[in-house]
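As promised in the previous annual report, we have extended the structural survey to additional targets. Below is the entry for Condensin complex subunit 1.
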Amino acid sequence: MTDCFVLHEELLKLQDANYFFPNEILVAELSTIELDRLLNDTTDKITENSSAITNAELFDVLRSFVKKYNLLESTTMNRVLDIIISGFRSEYEATSNDLEADEEDTYGDHRIAMEMYGFLLGWLISNAEDKAASKSGVASGVDGATSGKTKRSRQAKSKNATITTVNLTEEWDWSAQKLAALDLMLEVLELRINKIWTSTHERDTFVSLFTKSAYLMLENVTNTKNNDIKTRVFKILSICVKDYNHAFGAQTSIIQEVQYYEHLSEPMAEFLHVLSSQYDHTQLAEEILIEINNKEFGDKDVIGPKNFSKFLVKLSELAPKVVIKQVGLLVGHFNNEPYTMRCGLIEVLGNLIIDLANQEEQATNHITQVNGFFDLLEERFLDVNSYCRSKLLQVYLKICDLKAKFPKRRQRLTDLVVRSLEDKASQVRKYAIKLLTKLISTHPYGLIHGGELSAGEWEERLKNVEEELKALQPPQEIVDMGAGREASTELEDRSDIQDMDIDILQFTRRYYTDAVRFIHQIHTAIPTLCQLLVSTTKSEVLEAIDFFVTAYTYKMEFAGEGLKKMLHLIWTKDNNDEGKGIRKRLIESYRKLYFDFDISISDKENVYIITRNLISLTFNATLAELTSLEQLLSTIMNEGDISDEVIAKLWSVYSVSKKEIPKAQRRGAIIVLSMLAKAKMEIVQEKIDLLLKIGLGSFGKADFSLAKYTCIALQRLGGSKTKVKGSLTNDSIRLPMSHQIFHRLKQMIEIQTTSQEWFALAEQVINTIYLLGEHPDILCADIIKRKAAHVFDLKIPDDNVMEIDDETINTNQAPFMMHPIQLSQLVFIVGHVAIKHIVHLEIIEAEWKRRKAADESKGDDELEQVAGTTEDELGEAIAQIRERELLFGENSLLAVFGPLISNICANNKTYNHHTLQISATLALAKLMCVSSEFCENNLQLLFTILERSNEPTIRSNIIIALGDMTVCFNNIIDENINYLYKRLSDSDSLVKKNTLMVLTHLILNGMIKVKGQLGEMAKCLEDEDQRISDLARLFFTELASKDNAVYNNLPDIISNLSSGDNPVNEDSFKKIMKFLFDFIEKDKHTENVVEKLCLRFKNLDDQRQWRNIAYCLSLLPYKNEKIIKKLIEGMPHYQDKLHEQEVCTFFNEIISKAKSVKPQKPEMKQIIDEYEAKIEEHRARGQDHEETIKKAAAATQKGKKKSSSTTQ
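The corresponding structure token record, generated without further manual editing, is:
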């Protein structure tokens, strides 16, 4: 056998699928008994002498088993594997003994036997790994490698042989034997095999048996997850590379493995790290890096660049000193197309910076290298791929956590990150916010004064140090006297003493300057961050919340602005995980900032700080912010996170009287208490006397805003639970009119004042009376009478009955013209009482229905029929009272003031006081919501005021009121709806915004039908005011989901924008159309739009309209033949317009869009090609025609000039 077996030749033969050897046994056809007999015989021979493998028959028996290895039963497979490993180990031990004894005459026999065992083991491993990889359950096989208990037992006919058996019912698993096989390979490689294999070629061939097996094992992803297997494989390969000239083979194999096996990217990097750190061999890693640098990746090569990227990143983490030597070559890949490779190099540079920064000795060349790496990273902020820019920001997040802060680089980095907040990619913006937060939390300016970043404090410090520096500079007079000896000596003495102080101060100034600059850099990002708080992407919003929380923690002044903007997120819907996440994070953030106790201070101090912070939230807050804050605080209160001590402290601040406190502080306390009472009414219920004493007492009379918020707090007594639509339950409470609350409220509204704050107070007083009083109409009537008596200088009889003559009021103007503010207050009260009384009537009707429903549950069917009739009668009675009695009844108090208010509004030149006109117009609008008759009588007056008034407040109020009137009296307003649409072009942005909001509400809720006026709303899409533009986008987005409304009105919108009374410019037209055409999604709609637009070309002479229609056609998707055919059918209408360059360009874009549809049928391609040829033909013909016309015109002009000269 020694002469027959040549390892190299056998390995070449084995590559053939039909590997043949002379004495092959067809083991697959043998019975179990015959197989056992063969294996027992083989075991006996090998156990007796491991070199028996050189026997040709025995070797061919084992080759036969290995060849059909995957067809064997699991018991047989394990026996074959055990025989080979046991025999190989025995041969290894015999060879080791002979090597130690220098028995050179045995080396040849050992070489043949070792090669045979190695050949069998390598072949078996190859088959075993193929079988393991083909099984779907391999992934769990490693973890359960030892789950099947194994035992060694002697077979009946072989007393000395040992084999491994497993339960026949179990799947074959050789994980336990893998480690034994790998350990055996290691032991063999550690022999002095150079003595046995004197020929390099033969030795390399033998070693290749182990390296090939090692690579095969790594190709199985399950093996790479087993650290024991992975460690042994790395050792085998490392020994082969270092001792057996396997470096070049390893280089080739690693490059191939990384390129084609994604899971081997990181393990191969780990192997190179083991090779360099444990075996002191870095050359292989360096050669591989050089080869990677020389690789060129194609545009369609996705897997290769990704795998090499992961490999480089892992290697730079484990062995940065190896990578840094070749990084100068690798960065060339920044200029290549695959973005995954650029992402990997960005991370590699970050790892190298981290390694250099963590080294204890900072050499000069290290600083140079770090700066070079930073330069390369900063260039990547302009990378065309968003994944690269995102990865860059993630790398900087790691760098910011280093002890080394790189202060000079941070300034530049902050500028770049602020710019990245406006990146078009959401992922980039997310990490930009995250990095800004990290820059704040890891800033380097906490060495002297702690970590806070208050701009005011740092600017004050900088100012002080500059003054100190200025004071230490020598006076100019002494410098000028330098020629004198005494002066010179004095100057030198002072200089020697002060040099050190000046150096320290200059360093401090530079430190302060950098800190101030950093704070201002962050400040420039605030507007963008506030916009990102309302982003539609959840991750951006969450990161923006974290940013403002961090900024507030570091005492940055601008953080308060962001925290107020955050408040509106409390309205985020909880109908999905995204909304819940944002709302939950918001509540957690406010809880952390305002309610969590600081364990380092006392409870009393904690309560004081929490109270102060809560009150500060109300300072300079808008109505929208206060509304959102109310929802947030009531939610937190419901969760029980606000202690009684904090509530008590808030009451203490509200009621303090022994010392002067700012008005805003007292107001803030009652605002917060009112918000908390929304969740827990008892907060206010237990302190009614205090509210009356403070808010409606002397303090309230001196501060109308305090009184107003006190009224709002009292309204919490009426219950604040959201009413369920259609529900008849009523949990509100009503107080008798003799209650002290109403006495104080009456006193407050009757205060004689000219303050504008009175109107807001009066509104809340009336609201409170109608919410809490059993008979609010009685008290309000008395208030109106007393106010009228004061305004008109009338006396009220003792029986509290006052008759007011209409004629006296309307004609005798002199008494009240002297008090326009008082008259304004009167009409304001009248108007607001009227609108609240409507609500009161609805409450009465609802309460009656509730009581009736309760009675019905106890009654019978007959009673229900009677009650049903009564209910109808009550509804009609209420409607009659509202329509006829309130404003036209003989005994109605409001009826007295209707003509007065109309007269004031109609005679605005006579009653020209600014406040009076605003109050009267508002009151008129409220009265018009009461009765349809009154509304119809005064509607034209209201429209006249709307058209002619120069006061934006009046126009805004009328617009809002018209929205309410449309709801109440749809038929009356619908005929005059154009007056509303006209306000969309109002000069005042507030009026325009309110008009858009009212129309949005009316249209989306079906209150009015769109009749071609959507063009005016479409113009708002390009409004200068971002709020109006955003509202318009929201409107059309919602409208598009309702019965094809955008599609149905598209022709009218196009007409309005391009040729209406006030057409928009072409750029705006294109932007608006691009937005609207995105809503045309159905193919049928696309076909119809194409047909209608083509017809529009007919009889059009305006070239701008040609361009507009052609542009609209280019926006549509051309997905099928029908749409293209519609376009071809309409060609007669536009073929004579194709000579216009821009029109032709748009049609060429249509052709390109149609060609890009994949997959494309041959018929479709033919149609498009024919259409393209026709377009070109008509374009050329049209151009020739135009040139002919121009020549004719020129000739005519020339003839006229010639005849003119002849005549002269």
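The CA atoms of residues 189 and 243 lie 9 Å apart. The longest helix spans residues 1162-1207. These points will be discussed at the next consortium meeting with the crystallography subgroup.
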